[in-house]
Amino acid sequence: MVEDKDRPGFFKDYHRAVRKAISNDQFNEFSKLKTNDDRIRFCFSLPAIHDIDIKPYFRGKSEKEALEKKEAGNKCFGRKNNLEALRLYSQAVVKAPVPSGKYWKLIKESADPKKMTMYAICLANRSAALYHLREYHYCVKDIDEALEHHYPKELKYKLYKRKARLLSHMKQHVEARDAYRQALKWLDWAKMEREKRIEHQTDIQKWLKMYETGKVVKNWDIPECYIEHPPVIPELTGGRNERFLSASKKIDIHYDNNMGRYAVASEDIEPGDVLVTEQPFASVLNREEFGSHCQKCFKTTKAPIPCKKCSSVLFCSVECRQSSYFHTIECPILDLLVGSGMSINCFLALRLVTQKPVSYFLDMKEKLNEEDLKEITNNKEVYDPSDFMRLYNLVCHSQFRTAEDLFHRCVMIVFLIKALKKTKYFDGKGSSSGECAVRSLLSLVLLSHCFGFSSLKEWFDTRLEYNFRRYPGHQKK
Ligand SMILES: [Zn+2]
Ligand SMILES: [Zn+2]
């Protein structure tokens, strides 16, 4: 496994500078510390660790690049090269400024309609390529997103007409009829010759007449070829284990002091049996896949939806973007973190924090301070896979790590907390004692998990997501 110190990026220089700045006596003092909390406090007290200027750093939007990609996409679309047009329009969609939040206010004041409508126009153009590629599911999503983001009103009739046509292909006749009604309404705003307008009106009315005078309009089942199915989680073979809800009845989990926690077969296991399935506590996408896969669900993105602020990440849908709280925190520092060269283990540790608001950890503070974390393997309690304490209970292996290794990890944690402080994560927790408590708690969580992740990642190194509740190790004692 590649350690942080062997990776490219500025973190290794930062760590080296902090390490060099402390005396042998100070380092000896560090090596004698017994708890994670004490180690982190020690590192925070070092003057050299604050000799780093951490600033938000992320790849933003570029109207110029969006325009270039859109025009290149238009050329391909004109030549009926829809696949290449889709690729170029997607790049334009990702780069186009999204009129929302502060940015929206800014451009509203400067009243530049081109900037305001760029994102929506790129989406609308992409929807045309998707329509010809018969990717109706994505086409309708792009049209809705464009209509929600200031698509020019004089062109709206066109989008509604496209939407009506594809909904009728999808046998969604109620929505198709409504879209034709909208198309007719927005035709009044269109800038065109009278004859052309009448032509459009006649066409739309022909369809509306069919819907309104024909047999009862209803939605039929969407044809299978137009449905995007979510990934299928395989069924557990032999039924669900009564105590370990994520495991099959075919295995049981035991614990003893020599072996730690381990699985035993309760009955014969055949090749291909599914023994454990579970939602991961936290998961991160490999950096190499940032340009092709959804940050939230890891699906490949046929028609990517961008973050509203940066152009570093993609989502497969507006729904995935909306449910990615973690990215609203990580967004302003993402490229800083990538540039640091930190490992995927550290990203995973950070994600555990950024996927929940700080209030979640404040509420857990009492629980985390309990000295005797419950041993659940040998008692009869049901193992709740969504309980954060199960994760916290994973073994840290800190007793097997050298002082140098511990120090390196602690510096990483200080760096992560400093980076987090440049985001809105701690907003609203302004009182210094409150913030200190939260920082100390997060340090503890991050440090424990950095350890836990390293040992687990060695088990599941080929996966894009790492599940921490597969019972592979001992429990912390
Ligand atoms: Zn997704
Ligand atoms: Zn972002």
From TrEMBL:
Domain (MYND-type) ranges: 294-331
Molecular function GO labels: histone deacetylase binding; methyltransferase activity; zinc ion binding
Parts forming coiled coils: none
One biological process term in Gene Ontology: methylation
Domain of life: Eukaryota
Gene Ontology cellular component terms for the protein in this record: cytoplasm; nucleus
SUPFAM superfamilies hit by this protein: HIT/MYND zinc finger-like, TPR-like
Cited PANTHER family: SET AND MYND DOMAIN-CONTAINING PROTEIN 4 (PTHR46165:SF7)
Name of this protein: MYND-type domain-containing protein
UniProt organism field: Scylla paramamosain
Record lineage: Eukaryota, Metazoa, Ecdysozoa, Arthropoda, Crustacea
